[in-house]
Amino acid sequence: MELTYGRPAASDAVPEPVTHAAADLPRLRRLLGVPELEWLVERVRGRLVAGRPLTGVVSLATPTSDQRSAVERLLARPPGGGRSLTVRLEAVDAVLRRSGISPEGLAAAVTALIGPITPLAQVRAEEEAAWDRAYAPLDALVRDRPELAAWAARVRTGGLARRLARTPESAHTLLTGVHAALRALPADSAVSLAAFAARTLGSAHALDDGTPHATLTLSGVRALTGFADGSGAEWRRNAWASAGLLKDELSSTVLTLNLQGTPALDWMAHEGEPSVLTLRQLIRRPPSTTSPVVRICENPAVLAAAADTLGPACPPLICLQGQPSAAAFALLRHLHGNGSTFRYHGDFDWGGLRIAGALLRRVPWRPWRYTAADYRAALAGSGSKLAPTPLTGAPTRTPWDPHLATALAEAGVRVEEERELDLLLSDLRSAPDANP
After folding, report:
1. In 3D, which of 272, 301, 295 has the Cα closest to residue 420?
2. One of this protein's Pfam families, by short name (predicted)?
3. What's the Cα-to-Cα distance from 254 to each of 49, 139, 221, 275, 296, rounded to whole Å?
4. How many angstroms separate the CA atoms of 298 and 418, rounded?
5. For residue 79, what pLDDT band results from cuts at 50, 70 and 90?
């Protein structure tokens, strides 16, 4: 290792080349580089890695006679006579400088013997800088999709990408793929998950269950669509479907009443019976006719009561059965594109509001007794057999009526959709374009 000396140049002068003073490596190896002093060199290396000064003493318990002799040759004097062997680092540094073996002292001598030593603090700083660079695709995604900012922050601070990728280089590759996938979601029209993975990530299996790309991308999908927590194969299938990605065309369904436009739907509407439509049916043969107004509810109990009470006289009604499925989105987009408008009602709780918000981000609708005034009226109602229960979960916004979220937070009471069943059935008895 070459070491440098130099005198300061005048402030207005061009700096002169710096001269170099190298360690005398052959002498250094004979004096300090012998096997009997490996323990001493290792102690010094450890201090340099830790960024600690080379001062004070280092000790070796139960040294051999050869190790004691090596220290005596190094310091030109006998070491102490205790059971352990103690060496003062300042003394070694002075010997190396004074003899000219290592003009820059002990640190330069050890570096010349074993090679460059990087302090641990520098290693950690370089590693953190590498991880910062690895997250660049995530930062770019947030610029493209600001609504993912909170999710991206959780990915970064929670260490999910680190656990999945292990190294900054692998993380950068992983996040580049996640960026490409989430930029394209939710899908404008339903598409096979495998086909989407092949198109955006270059492999039809990139989003298979258990892959790092699938884990991170599905996490981002839930942030985009507001899909609720869960687990299991069915939950994952529905979570992907909430962004328009299908693991198959038959598992995604939507429940309807009195829609028309296919022979099967026309017959079911004539009978006033509910229909379950698969995504396959909606892709291959969507309804050919639409209604000016279609009502949407969250819970199957509402649709079942409408079928029991009103039968064929009930205006068109669609039930989401919780989180909107890919089939539900496909049907609603089709109806909206052909002129239908939607009126929506759901549970008055944070989960219900999240479902409504996720739907509103994909399909426009107006509230159907689903405002702050309706919530307060429901709280004031009496005679219901379904008593309200305490509100739980994390709050959310209600962009169709900002006062609704405030009203729920203030009252802290959950009102399920079934509790409003009489009012909803009364509305359904009216003309399809009624606006109560």
Report:
1. 301
2. DUF2399
3. 63, 36, 20, 8, 11
4. 10
5. confident
Among residues 209, 156, 217, 216, the alpha carbon closest in space to that of 185 is found at: 217
The reported pLDDT for the residue numbered 14 is 37
Task: Give the count of domains, the chain.
Answer: 3
Q: Which residues pair with 4 in a beta bridge?
A: 20
Q: What is the pLDDT of residue 432?
A: 52
Identify the domain containing residue 23 by its residue range: 2-117
Amino acid at 179: H
Query: Residue 170 is encoded by which pair of tokens?
Result: 């692998």
Per-residue three-class SS string for 339-387: CCEEEECCCECHHHHHHHHHHHHHCCCEECCCCHHHHHHHHHCCCCCCC
**DSSP letter at 225?**
H
Task: Examine the fold and report which residue of 202, 227, 246 is the final residue of a domain before the chain moves on.
Answer: 246
Q: Do 148 and 212 fall within a single domain?
A: yes
Tens-digit pLDDT profile for residues 141-185: 888 888 889 888 888 888 888 888 878 888 899 999 999 999 988
